[in-house]
Amino acid sequence: MASRADNIASNLNLGNFAQATELRQRIWFTIGVLIVFRFLSFVPLPGINPKALDRLAELGQGGVLDMFNMFTGGALANMSLIALGVMPYITASIVVQMASALHPTLAAMKKEGATGRQRLNQYTRYGTVFLCAIQGWFLATGLETFAGNEGIAAVVNPGYGFRVGAVISLVGGTMFLLWLGEQITARGIGNGVSLIIMAGIVAQFPTFATNLFEGGRTGSIAPTIIIGFIIMVAVLILLISFVERAQRRLLIQYPKRATQRGMMQADNSYLPLKLNTAGVIPPIFASSLLLLPLTITQFSSSSVDTTSTAGSWLVTLNQYLAHGQPIYMALYALGIIFFCFFYTAVVFDPEENAENLKKNGGFIPGIRPGKRTSDYLEYVLTRITVVGAIYLTVVCVVPEYMIAQTGIPLFLGGTSLLIVVNVTVDTISQVQSHLLAHQYGDLIKKAKLKGRTR
After folding, report:
1. Burial degree of 282 (CB within 10 A; 0-12, 13-18, 19+)
2. What is the C-alpha to C-alpha distance for residues 276 and 426, in angstroms, rounded to an integer?
3. What is the pTM of this model?
4. Rounded to an integer, what distance in angstroms lies between the CA atom of residue 168 and that of residue 114?
5. What pLDDT digit, counting tens, does each position of 191-231 carry?
6. Distance between CA atoms of 290 and 287, rounded to whole angstroms?
């Protein structure tokens, strides 16, 4: 049976797609939903003057909003219905997860199973609507003060009517994106929200490449910098691909059991602990928390008198927290490290895993079951998480700091590459799982047919 499973695993290739009808349908459905997402990024908000979009595209150029624009696939620069993307949902999920870890009522709700998770998801959606409304209001207020080329106003009819309409449109756009993500997760391939974020980043790759090589052609970027950037991207992709699949496997032994021939044999297995257990969640969470207040302050500063105390304070805050500035990078690094440990503690509970091993009769050699096993798992997991946090911080912060210092006119840094590579690897793994399940299904059907003929 093991050799037959190995043969099935080795035969997973592109030729199997022709027979996996359900898998092909899931892939085409995912592609169709992502195409809808790209179309929505070009649908402007009601009341926006299309002639002023060029000026709106320069709204946050060189600032932190360029990163927000990258996550939304250019929707912010187009001031589309989905200008806020899924970042409010991510911020709301951070708050709910932290509250469920600290508040006893929410913690008990989390342990209720599917019902408790459904209620927590509902709270997350309420928080998403609330954050969308706040960000949308400040976005609409800031848009009313901007003018495009030749003094063309960005908003045709400014006032409360435009602000309310913009808030409703932005809330509806974000919630529709979440619905599309849920449809991908249920009927497509991969995690829907992650794929939407990745699609937005990938959609900006042609712009990034054009800016890079155009800078080389005009002489604004030195050829050595372009070559070094390409080498850095290649090294980062190899590093991310290697580390994301790295594991620390703990040997698990089970009591000896009698075989069919009367011999006593011990069963062994492994408990895999990923080097980066948190995946892409820490950089996404950290950037989301930074983008929430900075979006509000940057658009608020445009509608406030800069000579006043509040106006000068907002301008100074935006300057210090601009993308590539030391304070922004320090806060970003601290956020990544914090969410590495926080999210790892959420997804992996040493006490629960130690209790499950004890119930099934398994134990780690040299470690007593129960509390000792729990302490040992926590000790190993903490050491692994330290390495994973350092890896994520280096990959996400160092390349973006180098890009900011060299003045390359694009924001394709380690964070975007980490998200793209990680989501791609996870999606490919799900495709392979579907292919494997399809081939095992065919194998079971053939075995049943042979059993009937006999």
Report:
1. buried
2. 13
3. 0.78
4. 31
5. 888 899 888 888 888 877 887 788 778 877 778 878 888 88
6. 5
